[in-house]
Amino acid sequence: MECVRLRVKDIDFALAQITVRDGKGGKDRVTMLPLNLSEPLRRHLSRIKAQHEQDLEDGFGTVHLPFALSRKSPNAAREWAWQYVFPSSRIAVDPRSGKRQRHHVAEGILQSAIKKAVDASGTVKRANCHSLRHSFATHLLTKGYDIRTVQELLGHKDVSTTMIHTHVLNRPGIGVKCYPQQRSASRLSLHIGEAALMKVTQLKREHYLKSAWGKRYIKTGFT
Known about the structure:
- The protein is mostly helical.
- The protein is 45% helix and 6% strand.
- It has a three-stranded antiparallel sheet. A two-stranded antiparallel sheet has the order 4-5.
- The mean pLDDT is 79.
């Protein structure tokens, strides 16, 4: 619901961030706006703005306002800033006010779009909208971001909730990758290790030969 309820005013292209209102835990939070989606989102909003202006000409163009804002600023319902980023394709009667206006898209439409994208990608694992939160968190953690930053971006009240995502860091070998350009360094480390082992073996042999048993060993002529 956080996605479909986004308002135009909650997107800041200059700072590349999105403000999520009344999100998880009933709190607001700020998250990042992916730079590669900035231009496509601008073009999308241009089309939505043209649709909104046409709605205004047709005598509609209002939108549901949260809490008591409709009483404090009744004209805000017609302003572009308060329109939904992902509005419905049709105008319908709002059961709360009885007005004909454009609501946001249904949550089921987003879920269907996610399912189609998962199927098209060939992913065999089960995935839904909430899976994107887990994926977002685990990718940040594997990239080395601290747990507090991830907690703030996800909107978790308690860091222990965010710690659930750190299970990916406890798996053996996770995050350890061998790249072709690192093979020479690996071989060098192996040679250094072998040389050190040979040196230790030589020192042990010299120490043995200096001992009483070593001197007897030398007299027997086996060295």
